[in-house]
Specification:
Length: 116
């Protein structure tokens, strides 16, 4: 692993940890909510998250990574944070290397059937 890749991976790991800490802080007030509303909010957000994921994969034209490998469920949060950072202009070198190896992200033509 090159120094660039190691440094970029370390920064993305730190960024993921920061985002997770913020999510925990945002979720903390829900800890004091009675069981039924707490469960309703939790299930609601869980279902909403899965719907958003599948809608995104439909537009992308690719199946979720965890369909082939369950480890994708563990890597998913870091992937999302990485995509946010790339959208903000961070990690150009890392994004270029990912696209060199895996190909660029693309949106499929919704008029044509999915091919994968």
């Amino acid at each position: 692993m090159t120094v660039l890749a190691s440094s970029s991976c370390s920064r993305s790991g730190v960024a993921t940890s920061v985002v997770n800490a913020m999510l925990i802080a945002l979720a903390h007030p829900f800890a004091g909510v009675p069981l039924v509303p707490w469960l309703a909010w939790g299930i609601g957000f869980f279902v909403l998250g899965w719907l958003i994921q599948f809608i995104g994969h439909y537009y992308e034209g690719r199946k979720p990574a965890f369909v082939d490998d369950i480890v994708g469920l563990l890597v998913g949060p870091m992937f999302v944070v990485g995509e946010w950072l790339f959208a903000l202009g961070w990690g150009h070198d890392m994004l270029a290397e990912i696209e060199r190896r895996a190909g660029p992200t693309h949106l499929r033509d919704l008029a044509a059937p999915a091919t994968r």
